[in-house]
Amino acid sequence: MSFKEFLSKNIVYLDGGMGTLLQKQGLPSGEHPERWNITHPDVIVKIHRDYFDKGSNIVCTNTFGANGIKFSDEELENIIKAAVENAKKARQQSSCKKEKFIALDIGPSGKLLKPLGDLDFEDAVTLFAKTVKLGVKHGVDLIVIETMTDSYETKAALLAAKENSDLPVIVTNAYGEDGKLMTGATPCTMVAMLEGMGVDALGANCSLGPKQLMSVADELLKYASVPVVMNPNAGLPKSVGGNTVFDVLPDEFADDIATLIQKGVRVVGGCCGTTPEYIGAVCNKTEGIAPKTCENKNYTLVSSYTHAVLFGDSPILIGERINPTGKKRFKQALIDNDLDYILSEGISQQEKGVHILDVNVGLPEVDEALMLEKVLSELQSVSDLPLQIDTSDTEAMEKALRRYNGKAMINSVNGKSESMSAVFPLVKKYGGVVVALTLDEQGIPDSAEGRFQIASRIVNEAAKYGIDKKDIVFDTLAMTISADNKAATVTLDALEKIKKQLGCHTSLGVSNVSFGLPNRDAVNSVFFTMALEKGLSAAIMNPYSADMMKSYYTYKALKGLDENCSDYVEKVPQLISVAATPAEAVKNREDFGSDLQKAIIKGFKDKAKELTKQLIKSTSPLDLVNSEIIPALNTVGIGFENKTVYLPQLLMSAEAAKSAFEVIKEGMLGSGANQSKGKILIATVEGDIHDIGKNIVKLILENYGFGVVDLGKDVPAEKIVEKAIELHADVVGLSALMTTTVPSMERTIALLKDSAPWCKTIVGGAVLTQAYADKIGADYYAKDAMEAVRIAERII
Amino acid sequence: MRNLVLSRVYGEPAICENEILRYAGCKEANDATLALMKDCLKKAKEALSYRVCFCKLPVTVADGVCAIGDLKFRSKDLAINLNGCDEAILFAATLGAPFDRLIAKHSHLSPSVAHMLDAIGTERIEALCDAFCSDIEAETGAALKPRFSAGYGDLSIEAQRQIFALLGCEKQIGLTLTDSLIMAPSKSVTAIVGIPTSKT
User: Fold this and answer.
1) Residues of A in contact with B37 (CB under 8 A)
2) Distance between CA B95 and CA B77 in Å, rounded?
3) How many CB pairs under 8 A join A and B?
């Protein structure tokens, strides 16, 4: 019987602990247990055989840490070959009559993925792929990916398994006492991502005993359509008379597992501290419990790396502002590679209360695939909202989906065959909820029925790829009523029909409806409310529109989706008062100058921005900079140098000045004015992942009028040199925090001296001193950001 | 098994605001700085977790080599630190990945917030180490030696590799080591603390 067939009909018993048993057999600390496959095959075979004899259906090879980080290619192959042979031998020797399968066991790499750690996602995929290929070559029946504490690494491992084998894959994660992975993901989040990618069974292992994992099991069972797996520890370890014992004994463990099976768990086993005796007890206790069938849960879920967003009664807001269409400042940011601007658009929409961020970076001047991938990773390092990947370029879409940490929304597919055949394979492979536009080769039907017909065809075509309709959200296309006064009605009727007859969720780009009309917010917000009443699930919208947000909160309150009207009471009065402020903010013109200086000196970011907005109407940008901002900055800068102003204050003032500059910059866009004093390239050197200090220096340098290009952290010497040449940079600023990364700083400086000899280097960072800087050949050492400014002023 | 590695999850150790301000480079805090700190503490609260894993090991010192369980470190400074100890605790503590993400987020948006959060992280991880060590003192009844970490004095930072291998930090508390020996999540500490042999 194939494993998949067996899994579909039975409770499946996994094995128990391996590491703890090997330690009892004398495995010294620090030695890799995987080597025992070769040096102590008899011990390994016996443990596997004992598990089979006691009733395990699956034995996992002793390959938890068998990866290319710990072992050379040759040793890795020998280990995996021996490990599979040991398991096969045990299967042959076992007298138990049950079905027996051998799983390739894959544990975490021991590394944290970028951006938090230093392992690149694609390198992680390659790493796991190597192990997978060897397991397949030596003849395992399935793959078990286990004890993963990070959703991103889990994705890398599952992708490697899927791309390099046709074998069934089980994935289990290690959840903590808080019911989350160490990097923050909830069980529901993992269900969304793993099922999206086509896992065969999923669940939890390690970290806790069975009782502590009950709530994790409940959540997994609630959302998962595939079988749920539970392999708890035998409770917690403690030391008794120099020996390690675990506090849950086999009988109690078996009772708890029986409870889990009754709840609906389909694959059970043990982790640390469990032994063949535990598995024997579990088998005895649970024999005869009928397996519960796994039902297809009809949840439409998108996720980030921490949480999932569930489509349901409460409307979902998708922020539309990360999009260059019609936004000069945003276009400029894309062209200039100004990621901070793009990221701040994301964060401020999150603060306004959206649930998902739409990400569109398509512009003729930029390589969309590259930019989308970059913006997506950066956004995921600053915002935990799920993202909607918005592109018509399928190459860009695939790259983005691959890198995305979670289950993304995809915008979009449509009824054209070409579109479906390009997009559906990507949805199938990487998972995702796809927005489907009701248009096809013939265009957009002008009747609700026509749009409904296209939707039905899309559902049928998706099914051929194995994509469930719960993972399709229909957009019935809002068209402007200024061109056709029936446009809104058709859109809403189509939406209602799709929701009722196909049972699918819907989404609309609401703002299109008012194109060409005055007071668009008024039209948009009423249309939005009308659509919600017809069953709209989500809207792509502008969260800065007070009218839209008022409609949203009011609708929720009226529909009984806002308990005690608490969101309404908290948010709506704020929206109304914000709308009223501009008039109040206009005060006596003469006050602005000193007020702006004060705001900067005190570090009031929002106030500085508002005041600049007012002042720019009557003062030239250059005057504003020279007579207001620079004097304020100087006051603070000199204070810092004299030690009367401290770093947090300096930074707050710098940020206030930056927000003033931002207003001025916006006003000067397209004027061709470039006031930059000189070009400075800055980076944290390769191997170093700290960038707070570097970002501080960047902020202050920008304030003083230098054009700063930031290459980020962990940047290879070659890349820095290449960019320095491309920009003909006047100065390169390098940062390193650790003694271990100073050598790569030294290498960068040497390369720069060879290839960009005009360029001066300034170095800084916790471990650096003037003497150290001299030793590695740097031109200058700056002990802090202000000193970097002073040096730059001197040498440029 | 000789090396039993245990892990513990702590609640929030008491906060020392003056320490935070000190780490932030603030000799005197004005109202704006205090407000910034309060705001950052609020932001930090949800992202912080407090995890420790540790192992109690026998110690012997001979010819400038300190043997701590199976680990061997050539370090005179550590030898001095462990003078009079037959046992030591090897531990790793971390504030977790979500806190790093919080800092990264504000590092793009607002360096002042990132800088203050960084200071909070430094104070928090030290407070966690203090809480853990005072627990160990209560459990062993011994006044522990000062914490000694890889990279202090003549103990090479390379010692981190051995410490991580023995404690299995990734599995226990989600703490990893990069190729350049930087800990990730960044707000983390590993240390050796000697338990003085009781004289009675």
Assistant:
1) 648
2) 28
3) 177
Which of B24, B107, B176 is facing A695, going by the closest CB pair? Answer: B107
Could you tell me the two tokens for A86?
A: 């040991």
A407, A410, A380: which is closest to A392 by C-alpha?
A410
Across the interface, which of B27, B162, B174 has its CB nearest the CB of A182?
B174
What is the rounded average pLDDT of the residues A132-147?
Answer: 98
Q: Comparing C-alpha atoms, which of A759, A683, A694, A762 is closest to residue A717?
A: A683
Query: A25 vs A19, A287, A321, CA distance in Å?
Result: 10, 31, 60
Tell me the CATH number for domain B6-196. 3.40.109.40
Supply the pTM of this predicted model. Answer: 0.92
Task: For chain B, give every domain's residue range.
Answer: 6-196
Convert the pLDDT of each residue in A713-737 to its tens digit: 999 999 999 999 999 999 999 999 8
- pLDDT-wise least confident of A266-280, A572-586, A764-778, B44-58: A572-586
pLDDT in tens, A93-127: 999 999 999 999 999 999 999 988 999 999 999 99
What ipTM does the predicted assembly reach? 0.90
> Which domains are seen in chain A, by residue range?
3-286 (3.20.20.330), 591-668 (1.10.1240.10), 679-795 (3.40.50.280)
Q: Which of B101, B164, B167 to mutate to test the interface with A (most CBs of A within 10 A)?
A: B101
Among B194, B59, B79, B60, residue whose Cα is nearest residue B137: B194
Amino acid A673: pLDDT: 53
Contact of A146 with A18, CB cutoff 8 Å: no
